[in-house]
Amino acid sequence: MNHHDDQSETDGEFAEPKSKSQLKREADAVQDLGQTLVEMPATRFKAIMAKLELPDNLREALSACRGMRARGGRRRQLQYIGKLMRGIDTTPIAQALAALEHKDRAGAAALHRIEKWRERLIEEGDRALTELLNDHPSTDRQQLRQLVTKARKERDAGLSPAAARALFKILREMIKNENDGEQS
Questions:
Q1: 109 & 53 share domain
Q2: 149: closest CA among 125, 114, 116?
Q3: pLDDT tens digits for 154-180?
């Protein structure tokens, strides 16, 4: 093995150049990342921008694009954002967006879990209540039982589900406390 071959393995200088197609895919991916930032809700955008260390010109381009309504101008601005992003490491941006998506999924899963418990409590009554209280012994049994009974009566009478909403709030607090305990 000669010195030239050894160098190509370590430096990467002699690696195959990227094809036009590969460069286009990478450019599109970076532009899509920029578009995701531009289209997210304002509160999330501000939160992500506070976390990320981005060049000022990219920050300004992202903010400007959020205010654009003209399709042609917006498209050109997104292309400009893509060009700016190709010059930086976009890994932190992708990681921040992935973390947000994970948080959203976890929140949705928790809401589904709460809904499922509420439905079980209303349908099954004491059996489901006993199971829930085995997992959460510090919860007020009497208050839960009363809310379950009221929620069942409201459902059967076709009334507004005030007790079911109160039950949901208690369950949400229980599950929040449970999740906070796991993170400690």
A1: no
A2: 125
A3: 999 998 899 999 999 999 888 777 666
